[in-house]
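Researcher: Good morning. I'm working through a list of sequences from a screen, and I'd like to move beyond sequence-only analysis. For each chain I'm collecting a predicted structure so we can compare shapes side by side. This is the next one on the list. No need for commentary yet; just the structure.
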Amino acid sequence: MRFSLLLPLFLLTIAVSGQGVTYHADVAPIIHENCTECHRAGEIGPMPFTTYEEVAAYGEFIEYVTSIGYMPPWTPDPDYQHFLGERSLSQEDVETLSAWVDAGKPEGNPAENPGLPVFPEGSQVGTPDLIIGMPEPYVHGGDNTEQYQVFVIPTDFEEDVAIRAVEVRTGNGAIAHHAILGIDISGTAQELDAASPGMGYESFGDFGFDAYENFFAGWAPGIEAVIHPEGLGRVIPAGSDLLLQMHYGPTGVEQSDQTELNLFFCDEEIEREVVTGIMGPWTLGEPFVIPPNQVKTFHGEYLIPTDLSLLNITPHSHLIGASWEVFATSPNGADTIPLISIPEWDFNWQGMFTFPTLTKVPAGYTMEAIASYDNTADNPFNPNDPPQTVYYGDLTGDEMFFVFFNFVPYQEGDENISMSSSTFSGITEDHAEEANFRLQPNPAGMRVQLLNDPALLGTLWSLSDPMGRVVDKGIFRSTSQFLDIESMSEGVYLFRCRAGIERLVIQH
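Model: Good morning. Structure tokens for this chain:
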């Protein structure tokens, strides 16, 4: 018995030792499922990972960044709070990549490649209902300065339109630092545009006036479009203009950008409009000044006036930002709701982090945000050498203290509304009913391959135990992806998706 238990471990060790590990059979499934979504033409990854040649050229680099946990990028602490789209590799995946590199990056048999994932064209979400944006490319001067430029985009809507999602598609990721969307119903932005030479007008930090609702959506590298559950959405008023404020980073040569917006409409009239709350430096109770050669911590507080349901949360600071923790406490301090913790802030990977379900924060609770800033010479990202006093400002070398959070007024049962179930791919229900899928192998012991029609891309699947409890869930992101079941107990499970239900037998 002892020998029979040790034998599988021995065989597993041989399997990952480098002998027999090939790109097509072992590495391609890992790369396709975790990397290719961003590392392909038109996305933010600086190099494509779609073929053996492309991946092998960066094999040693991939091994290094995955071994230290830098890739796939994910900054929130999963032991503090979970969010949708958490990116991580299993230890087995990391060891497989390392073994492949150590073995000389063998290609293997192309017939064993699971196939390149099928992604929506020109979108990470699906097929948009409307694509609007800058009418022509904007040229950012090569004088090594930053630029905040506001572009006015008429919607020409004859009636109010409810938006389920808005996706910002930048035309040049090399200079696009971030984008902020606002709404103007007054025509003021068009007047400012007309008075300024060229396309758009310059405005740092805001839109140059009090725009309606001021903030509509935002984008930064690492931020994916938020798709609202049924009954919730944003509203673009009839006859209004969308304002696109682009922050372009410094460049030594002229570069152009033509950013587009993908709009996804709500199928039915919404019941609640999503609103954005903001914690800023005015919530601190002290001046926002960071002296040189110090690690400075600020503590902001925001009283919740009425019961809220949070959809997502976005802390924001700049280069000397070091860490964030945001939570909500009851008036007597007996209850604490953890919202987000980022132990090591990374300016290059910001995010709008969406809760798995709507998260209630009761009236009378205080939302507290604690942010630290490292303004010492030990901080390799410090823009000043030697360190200088840093103040609030819009430029990258300045600093910020902001927490954005999207919410709706609370309704009973909100805790059961899943944000992941709001994912969609723009396909029709009729088309989804025609789709099919297959679990392979079944029964299975360590992992299952999900094979499905392209019609299911972007839709939700779930795996439930015999008691009906959801033990795993996700999104069909390719026509062939893998589900790790090694840690699950033996038994019969139900795999559900829009195309139907299938029994999965797990036998270790």
